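User: What would this chain look like folded?
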Amino acid sequence: MTGISEDSGNAEESGDSREAGDSSEAKDAKTAMIEVAEKMISERGLDDVSMRDVATAAGQRNNSAVQYHFGSRDGLILQVLRRRIISLDSARKARLATADEQGLGYDLHTLVGVLFEPIVELLRTHPEATHYARFLQRVGPVMAPGIPEADLRTATDDVVVRLIDVLSHLPRRVAFERIDLATQMFTGALAVYEDRRDARNTVVNARFEEVVAHLYDMIEAALCAGAGSRD
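Assistant: Here's the prediction, encoded as structure tokens.
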């Protein structure tokens, strides 16, 4: 009689287990490097963090680990952005659907919340992401367009288009530029808040919720301002 012996079956099972373990280890290594890169770049800046730094801080003995898993430093950075941006866009999609159900899909106050509240909620509820605003401020404007999903129509795009429609007192190009600058102001101010928080600087407001409330008021006022008021 021919067939697979008990020993060979155990060997095959052992091989499957090793493959699963290897895959799990690779996933853990990639995740660790993504998390470390986000934190290190937020603290040091893009030009002061090397692939070797990231690999070492993530516990990788192979200094080429970043190259192996991501192809390059830019590949790693894009993965950091991709992880967050996809999640944030999904949250915006859900909030936009709720706004439409409530008949507020073209309300300025609501749309500003749809655009920025997912970032606020991320920082509010995930301690490991408390440096994300600094990371986004340092690399987002330059690197985010390289993400494959950036070429697709996203919920974020829909919010921006609706905001442009709402800002009918401005030429459409001016409205777009105003929204872009408002986004930079929002993330930039949160990045400064993160720096001051870590430095325990209490000279100015150090309460997260109050900082966010100020930002929402300022963003809405900036969007409602007329064009060329200082000419």
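Residues 1-21 have pLDDT under 50 and may be disordered. If you want, I can go into more detail on any region.
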